[in-house]
Amino acid sequence: MFPVLQHLGIDALNAMQEETIAAYRRHRQLVLLSPTGSGKTLAYLLPLVEELQRSADAPWPAALVLVPSRELASQTVDVIKAMKCGLRAVACYGGRPAMDEHRVIREVQPQILVATPGRAADHLRKENFDGTAVRTLIIDEFDKSLELGFHDEMSEVIGMLPNLQRRFLLSATDSHQIPSFVGAGFRKLDFTDSQPGSPAAQADSERLTLHLVRSPEKDKLHTLRDLLCHIGAEPSMVFVNYRESVERVAAYLQQEGFSVSAFHGGLEQRDRERALYRFAGGSALTLVSTDLAARGLDIDDVRHIIHYHLPLNDDAFTHRNGRTARWDREGDAWVIVGPEEVLPDYMAEASAHDTSLPSGEGQGRAAVPKPLWTTLYIGKGRKDKINKVDIVGFLSKVGGLQRQELGRVDIGDHWAFAAVARQQADAVLRRVRGQIIKGVKTLIEKAR
């Protein structure tokens, strides 16, 4: 058992993780194929941390982790910090000045650098970190990186890492060949067996229930509204195929009174972060997104996946559904089908329940579910010498919140988000107006 697991609140590993960790110790080149939500991040982080702890004085960074999105980069570093393993980690990604990241890299001297391929290549070109120090390369969701067009950047990065001793690739699907620039001689661990009757397929079918909902109109907005009212106050992710559709669907739902976050690649990083924290913190019951949110997000307890637009392919369908029924939890996937739409073969063959929504909801009489929480934005963070304990104490003592009225708290370098009981939010804001946290005056407002 790994001592760091107690810091993560995990009692035991699953079979995939145990087998992967054993293979990591025996082999230098590995490919892990395992479904979304099965715990691949820990499957590589646990043995990597174990390995690096034995050589903590080695030149930095000893390990480079390439990921396809800024959200996955940030979340991976957050997991490393939550492990309290004594190792330093830094996330690097586009959408913010590379010069600022260089300053952080120089100050922190991380043993683990987690970066998007383009940003890693940029830092290596500028010699912002020493590529000769990297002994371990992890490429998480390498198939997604290829789909997003990072082939050249990954090839360039690997070409600037002359002393690699270990290469580990991870993916939720086996849809891509290993690129030649990565190397050869990989040992493959495949946990994606989806043949009828296989243990993996049986486990998935037992935990995930698939529903078909027929929309009488080509425009599915009214059916989506009815479905969300039918679901009630449980977290749901609505997937659409285009950025413009995210804005249109989210605007309609907000107009109808729903608590909604919109998420897509065209948003500024600040807006993407706020959208995710409102959803993860429970103040937005619904996240409307493109397939950008289908992978790389670690959000607990998402019960419902709604396919507003039919997925573009089988992989997209799989990855969207992978946002729910994670680990041993159960989940529901809802496919809204228009009057002229035909289900693709991979979906038509799935075992789905044709679900009719309760009568009367189409006339707008159903109550719109309201969240239990409101997310507050606090304009200070770690670099301002403020931590979670300070925020919890401030909101309890000055804001007057009881323990059960304070939810998830996330903190960044110069910001923090805190979920508070919705019915208490306005009173809390009145009480903390003009007050200081740990000697610092800061902006505190509802995250929008």
What does this structure look like?
- The protein has helices at 5-8, 15-26, 40-53, 70-83, 98-108, 117-125, 142-147, 151-159, 199-207, 221-231, 243-255, 269-280, 314-321, 345-348, 388-397, 425-432; strands at residues 29-33, 63-66, 89-92, 112-115, 136-140, 166-171, 187-190, 208-214, 236-239, 260-263, 286-289, 304-307, 331-337, 352-354, 373-378, 406-411, 416-421, 436-437, 440-441, 444-446.
- It is of the alpha/beta class and 448 residues long.
- The protein has three domains: 5-190, Rossmann fold (3-Layer(aba) Sandwich); 203-363, 3-Layer(aba) Sandwich (Rossmann fold); 373-446, RRM (RNA recognition motif) domain (Alpha-Beta Plaits).
- It starts with a helix and ends with a strand.
- The model is unreliable at 194-203 (pLDDT under 50).
